[in-house]
Hints:
Strand content: 5-15%
Largest sheet: 3 strands, mixed
Pfam family, one: DciA
Number of strands: 3
Oligomer: single chain
Amino acid sequence: MSEPVHRDVVDAAAVALQRARKAARDRGDTPLSKAAAAKNMRAFGTAMEEGTGSPALRARDRYGVDPRQLGGFSGPGRSARDPRALSTVVDALMTHRGWKTPVNVSSVLADWPSLVGARNAEHTWPESFEDTVVRVRCDSTAYATQLRLIQPQIIRKFSDKLGEGIVTRLEIHGPVGPSWKRGRWSVQGRGPRDTYG
Length: 197
């Protein structure tokens, strides 16, 4: 029989923590005192507060003690530790990242039939939105012409739903013609001919 293989069990998190502590000691850093750690925690709590009118901040200003550092409940009223609504967090994220306008336009484009009518929506579809321009593809030139005729009404509907200046123009494209190229390599053709003579 073969002998069992013994391997040292390594805790990766503990090893990483030891390396970070050793690197800090090598740089000359020292562990924080209790007072410095408490000061950092107070600064963190202040940064997390939404407003300055919270009971915790009033108590800290009045008594010089942050009740959250004492443990237990934060007390009545709003606190940085209170859970926030998902809609509030997502809305703040979209605003911070600049996604608000594209998301609003996409929600309106999702209801394309109400903008252009059911019959037109069967033969047209929005492709993209960039810099106040909505690109639309049509499956025939007749529907592309129809959309060009009602373009002012469509833009007015966008303005009613989103606000002025969000969508200023529709870029309407008809069907893409067939490609005569086959394969990866091609040679330039002889030019236009009377193909369908």
